[in-house]
Amino acid sequence: MLPFVTQAAVVHYGWLTAAQMMDGLALGESTPGPLIMVVAFVGFLGGHSQALFGHPVLGGVVAACVVTWFTFLPSFVFILAGGPLVESTRHMPSLTGPLQGIMAAVIGMIVYLAGVFARQTWLPGGWHMLPDLGAIALTLLATWLLIRKQLSVFKLLGLCTALGLVWQLVV
Length: 171
Fold this sequence. Notes:
Blueprint lengths: L1 H11 L5 H12 L4 H17 L5 H33 L4 H30 L10 H15 L5 H18 L1
Helix pairs in contact: 2-3, 3-4, 6-7
């Protein structure tokens, strides 16, 4: 769902810039419940930019609350009502194919979102500007440390944060 939110909020409605959306996605992915965090962030900035109710902050808070409610409620109802049904169909051979198709679609969306992150991080000025070589080098280093050296995620995040800060101070 996050790629669709990104497309709508940045490209279609123009509520956020691509950089603001990246901030929201990064914030959401760093905590539990990324979808709720990101849509609340987008809702706040959208309500703030439209100055709903005549006041930007009030509009942002109201929009964030509405978006959070309508994102959380259907998921909660589906899980509460559909959880036992899905669990009872887990070993039905006729549903294995469709469930694998859904899994493939979810993986595809995750890869797409990774591509959005990469493009915005490596090419912050767009395709016509020079790439951010520091970001590319940090990505390659993190990938190597995670896959080849099997560094823990917490240590990797700490290291990448420190290296990113140093890179920003030097450049």
